[in-house]
Design a protein that fits this description.
290 residues; alpha/beta; Rossmann fold; 40% helix; 7% strand; disordered N terminus; five-stranded parallel beta sheet
Length: 290
């Protein structure tokens, strides 16, 4: 394992601040990634990283959540792992161990894993992040491979409370923050949002052996909302419920192709790394920004 010290981290910061081209050039000279996973370090190495890394990422992705009859339930966690790897390979960030259990009320009727109480989930996220702050984390990024108005809600409250209580800059990056509108131009489905053409294409690229395309079906659910306001979504298994879903998906995964998944991940990675670079410039409470 590489021994990480303050001097190494300072050099890594210069790569981070310089931008993509310089980082790529420097990668040719350094066989190791500029970032690190907290779990791979010894505690003295972890101490140096936590004190000096520009960003500490706390990733969250469902280890098990329904994704229709054709996708594995690990879909969110696998995308989370991919995005964390892109960050570690590209930037001098520190990635904390992931949170794999979460609050998924829209999918509660389907067998799987969930923390049913949003307060429990919020407290769990907050306490993990606070432990990182207590050990010196300069900025905390919460990666959420759910969406902003679902799992992003309790995560965002935790992030705001940490910002107020400790002065530590926090950022929540959810799936819909990094899925650019231009991606729709490359998809054929008329609408989507869960286990759809986009997600299915991504997993055809990431883990094709676990995708069952013979089970994929198009399902556009009921009438789309055409009025203002936040209407909490639901995939109900009760036929009497207007939100009844036989499949647990929304969109047309039958249209998915591997190359679409590769493109989707490239665009999402671009937005993800852009968010990290931008947030790294946020001033630090009572400290010199770096």
């Amino acid at each position: 394992m590489r021994q990480i010290g303050i001097a190494v981290l300072a050099a890594a910061w210069m790569i981070f601040a310089a931008g993509p081209a310089t980082a790529q050039d420097s990668a040719k000279q350094d066989a190791g990634p500029p970032g690190a996973y907290l779990g791979d370090l010894t505690w003295p190495e972890a101490e140096a990283w936590l004190l000096e890394a520009p960003l500490v990422i706390l990733p969250f992705g469902a280890g098990a959540k329904e994704h229709g009859p054709h996708l594995p339930m690990n879909a969110d966690a696998v995308v989370m792992e991919y995005l964390c790897r892109q960050a570690v390979d590209s930037l001098p960030v520190l990635v904390a161990p992931p949170i794999l259990h979460g609050w998924f009320p829209a999918f509660r009727d389907y067998p799987g894993t969930e923390v049913a109480d949003p307060d429990v989930f919020q407290a769990y996220v907050r306490e993990v992040a606070l432990s990182l702050v207590r050990h010196g984390a300069r900025r905390i990024v919460f990666l959420n491979t759910g969406v902003t108005r679902a799992t992003g809600l309790p995560i965002s409250i935790a992030a705001r409370e940490i910002r107020i209580a400790t002065g530590t800059p926090t950022l929540v990056v959810s799936w819909d923050d990094i899925e650019p509108a231009e991606l729709e131009e490359h998809m054929e489905q008329r609408a989507g949002g869960h286990a759809d053409e986009v997600e299915t294409a991504i997993h055809l690229f990431l883990q094709p052996e676990l995708v069952h395309m013979e089970r994929a079906v198009a399902d556009y659910g009921g009438r789309a909302k055409d009025y203002p306001g936040y209407r909490p979504g639901l995939f109900s298994r009760d036929p009497a419920d207007p939100a009844y879903s036989e499949t647990g998906l929304y969109g047309d995964p039958t249209l998915a192709e591997t190359e679409e998944g590769k493109l989707a991940l490239r665009l999402m990675t671009r937005e993800w790394l852009s968010a990290l670079r931008g947030f790294a410039a946020e001033p630090l409470h009572g400290k010199e920004s770096r």
